[in-house]
Amino acid sequence: MSAYAILSYHLDVAAFVVASLLLYLAGRIIIRRKKPAGHLPRLVTLATALVVATGIAFAWIAERNEREGIRRLVSGMAPTFAYELSSLSHDTITPQTPADDPRYIAMIEHQKNWLRLNPGIADIYTYRKLPDGRIAFIVDSETDYDRNGLYEGDRESRTDIGYTYEGAGEVNERALAGEAVFNTDIVHDEWGTFVSFDQPMHTADGRVEAVLGVDFPAENWVSQILFQRAEALLLSFFVLTVILSCSTLVVLMKIEVEDRRRITVDLEAARLEADRANRSKSEFLAAMSHEIRTPMNSLIGFSNLLMETDLTPQQRDYTHTLRSSAHSLLSLLNDILDLSKIEAGRVDIEHIPFSVHESLRKVLALFEPKAAEKHLALALDLPSDDLLLVGDPSKLNQILINLVSNAVKFTSKGTITLTARWIPSGTPTKGSLHCEVIDTGIGIPADTLKRLFEKFTQADSSTTRRYGGTGLGLAISRELAQLMGGKLTVQSTVHQGSIFTLTLPAMIHLGPLPNGGSASPVALPPPANAVLPSSSGRILLVEDNPTNRKLATIMLQRLGYDVDIATNGHEALDHVFSQTYHAVLMDCEMPELDGFEATRRIRLREEQQPDHPHIPVIALTANAMAGAETRCLEAGMDVFLTKPILLAQLKEALASCGQLRR
To answer: Which of 150, 173, 341, 392 could lock onto 350 through a cystine, CB 3.0 to 4.6 A?
Structure first.
């Protein structure tokens, strides 16, 4: 909105009145919220009205004084300018006067000098009514409107003698009639927007031969008036704020004692309601996780198996689309569950030794097929010596996987580089792990960077339409980084790429890694009486869902195992107590007897019969909520797997259980 509109329609005064009214109403609302029958004293209402009226009056006085000050200033200068031009024989200059006439040049130089000495003036010129009735400019010098020391363009050029003044009107006629006129109406013409003072120029015999016009930038003039009015209005608003704030505070203090008990009761009720809502959310997420992961296990599993069969190109494309869509839905589900864990404060940070080199190589290896499909180069920049640190490799991998996944998604050509370096601090074993994911992708606009890590936020709506995603990955990654005491930052240039920087505090691990490699975030070490893995043997599959049973059976058979089936815990115990199995794949949620109780009974039997070998039990569950893994391990299960399960994961889990009996 322009300053002219504010001045013309008194919008600043209107805003002052509205703000004052809102302030008064806010005080009443605050009191009513504390006590419905409460109110501001009548004296405060009268004081509010008085302050508002006083503020408006002060604003009017300030505007009047500012207008009068400008009028006095220009009415003192304009007659002087007019006299000087008259003394240079201005009345002898006509439209027929040559542009190089010495008298005309002298007047031009006088005008230019006045403008240099009075930077607050926009333009000085003279005009006259010609015999043909036209009002035309006589002497109008070059004008440096933008004050850069140059006369640029037609607007700042000298006006020709006799150039018709198209914008002339009633004010100019009055000036030509001999009246000095200060025109406060804003004039818009080809040279700009001004307010003007018109001073008649007289000949020796008192005749008006021309008019001297002095233009002032309207913007400066209006801004100065608004500034003076704003000072008066703001001062009044400050006084009103103090009055209403103090009055409201006094009223609130009077009712605070009687409200305290009610507030305490309300807070307790709110706490109970929040606990109930949180439990409902957790129950909903757990149910959603289980009910979605169960069919998702079949979708992903069978689409993977289907991709390994002889398919036509069209069938392969359809199957690939099906698998990609299922993975997208699974990714969304995982993001929501991760966010739920973070918000509930149920994320446990591990402190175990691991190899940085091994972790980063595994992360990058996950994206080699997708990068090759897009013809992207993947680069890994690591220190020459392996970094053995104590930290949480699972959370580190989760963050880096998200960052590299985004880099692959938003990069169409070039290279994606994953770097790591150790920055020591304090003691020789303490410092920070500094990882960077550098891409040559589409980049991120500067105005988007500040909200990039907000939940459900992407660069813009077109990003979601073109690349997909929910905008949760980066929010979760930053939350995880902060939970580990670190930070996640980004630098980006549109069309050049982005650099995501992860910094995590850590300690150097001085001894060898357990089992000669990085600690597994999935499985516990097998018991002492477990034996080394085999590629054949008999597996007991305990699963109540027919589709998941079929899928798991095919996967186990592809790994070279024979499979027996149980559909609930009772059947599983009958099999285990009557036959010898190399491992048990145990679903957790089943009718009649669930997997937790079945596993506890298996372990109890092993305790009662010390010579009975340990039977590895792998948990197969669709529950990925916080605490699910702990519950499985406490029941006696050895390995925790969440559905959907991939063939490679199943193979690794079976291997981690220990050797299967021959």
So the answer is: 392
3-state helix, strand, coil in the chain (%, to 5): 50, 20, 30
Residue 363 in tokens: 């992360």
Contact by Cβ (8 Å): 522, 653:
yes
Q: What is the CA radius of gyration of the chain?
A: 42
Asked if residue 644 has a cis previous peptide bond (ω within 30° of 0), the answer is: yes
| CA–CA dist 620, 598 (Å, integer) | 13
Q: Where are the domains of the chain?
A: 3-62+224-253, 81-218, 266-339, 348-516, 537-656
Total-model pTM = 0.46
Least confident interval from 21-30, 256-265, 522-531: 522-531
Element (H, E) at 432: strand 427-438
Q: Note the CATH number of domain 348-516.
A: 3.30.565.10
Q: Which two structure tokens, joined as six digits, stand for 408? A: 């692959």
C-alpha 184/C-alpha 192 separation (Å) is 15
- Both tokens assigned to 53: 């009226």
- Which residue matches tokens 């709110």? 270
DSSP code, position 527: P
Structural class in CATH, domain 266-339 = mainly alpha
Domain 537-656, second-level architecture: 3-Layer(aba) Sandwich (3.40)
Span 144-179, pLDDT tens digits? 766 777 777 767 778 889 899 887 888 889 999 999
pLDDT in tens, 597-624: 999 999 998 888 878 788 899 998 877 7
Euclidean distance between CA atoms 168 and 231, whole angstroms:
36
| Distance, C-alpha 109 to centroid of its chain | 58
